Amino acid sequence: MPLFDLPLDELRRYAPAVPAPADFDDFWQDTLHATAATPVLIDVRPEPTDLRLVDTWDVSLAGFAGDPVRAWYTRPSGVDDPLPVVVEYVGYGRGRGLPHERLTWTVAGYAHLLVDARGQSGQYGLGDTPDPHGATPGGPTPVTRGILAPEGYYYRRLVTDAVRAVHAARALPGADPTRVVAAGNSQGGGLALAVAGLVPDLAALVTSAPFLCHVQRAIEITDAGPYGDIVTYLAVHREAEAAVRRTLSYVDGVSFARRAQAPAHFGIGLRDTVCPPSTGFAAYNQYGAGTGGPAPQRSLHVYPFNGHEHGDATHVRRQMRWLAELLSGTVDRHA
């Protein structure tokens, strides 16, 4: 894939106006308040595995509307001290999979909560969390499900699940509730970014190729999925454009980024047609700009010759080193 978006020097300055709805903050405050009184942990039980160096728990947490959301919680075996928790969100079409599939953060010395994505199992990975609200008007895919109104939109539920997972992580055995990190790639990166904008005392954000950023531009410059699913929906439902654009404005990562306060580490590939680079730069360049306080510390790694895979294992190593330095106090939390 050749370079198709803005030149890198323009990307580094790219901070477009992405207006949030006037009731954006009230919408999310009301959404999260609706489940705030519901106990966040439904069930936490040890999970027998063949893994000798980590301990695993099968977790059910109460997400949007109290719906059960599944997650794997892992910790290094034999470690009694409370540990920082990396709450990781999965990519589009994926699920939490099997307990041994994602162990990087655990073997790096963290507790790790891997959160399922409701109603997405089967495309790229296994999951076991249903979405009982799937009958709202819209298209057949997750990104178009309920897209005609923000109240019924699928990502309202998924973002709520993501925030609730942070609260669940703080209540899990062996977790340090003051050091909870939101992490993810693609859809997971978009969810982690939303969490950073909605949870004021998050310890850190680790995001790469974040989905749902500057969405109005994304659906105009790429037809790769999942954005392509929105394009396909509008190609048939031509009269729905205004309603769809309004709904998407309530979940745009740029609006969440402007409200975020936690130190942040980003990764972007310049040949990414799935989550175009300008959309990620739009969020990065405005990260923390709307808080009125000191700018949070932020770091960005750019991969000029990579697409949606960005830096792969090289980038993960950079994430681990950055987070270890941040949590040890050797990285200033403010820019």
CATH H-level superfamily title: Alpha/Beta hydrolase fold, catalytic domain
Mean of all residue-level pLDDT scores: 95
Order of helices and strands: HHEEEEHEHEHEHHHHEHEH
Which structural class best describes the helix and strand composition? Answer: alpha/beta
CATH fold field value: Rossmann fold
The strand count comes to: 9
- First-residue to last-residue Cα separation: 34 Å
**What fraction of the residues are assigned to beta strands by DSSP?**
15-25%
Domain Acetyl xylan esterase: 1-325
Organism: Micromonospora craniellae
Active site: 186, 272, 308
Binding site for substrate: 92
Word description of this protein:
The structure is a single chain. The protein has 335 residues and is of the alpha/beta class. It has a single domain, classed as Rossmann fold (3-Layer(aba) Sandwich). The protein has helices spanning 8-11, 24-36, 104-107, 154-171, 187-198, 215-221, 227-236, 241-249, 253-258, 277-285, 312-328, and strands spanning 41-46, 54-62, 68-76, 83-89, 111-115, 175-185, 204-208, 264-269, 298-303. It has a 9-stranded mixed β-sheet with strand order 1-2-3-5-4-6-7-8-9, sandwiched between helices. The model has no long low-confidence stretch (mean pLDDT 95).
Topology:
Layout: H1 8-11, H2 24-36, E1 41-46, E2 54-62, E3 68-76, E4 83-89, H3 104-107, E5 111-115, H4 154-171, E6 175-185, H5 187-198, E7 204-208, H6 215-221, H7 227-236, H8 241-249, H9 253-258, E8 264-269, H10 277-285, E9 298-303, H11 312-328
Parallel strand pairs: 4-5, 4-6, 6-7, 7-8, 8-9
Antiparallel strand pairs: 1-2, 2-3, 3-5
Helix pairs in contact: 4-5, 6-7
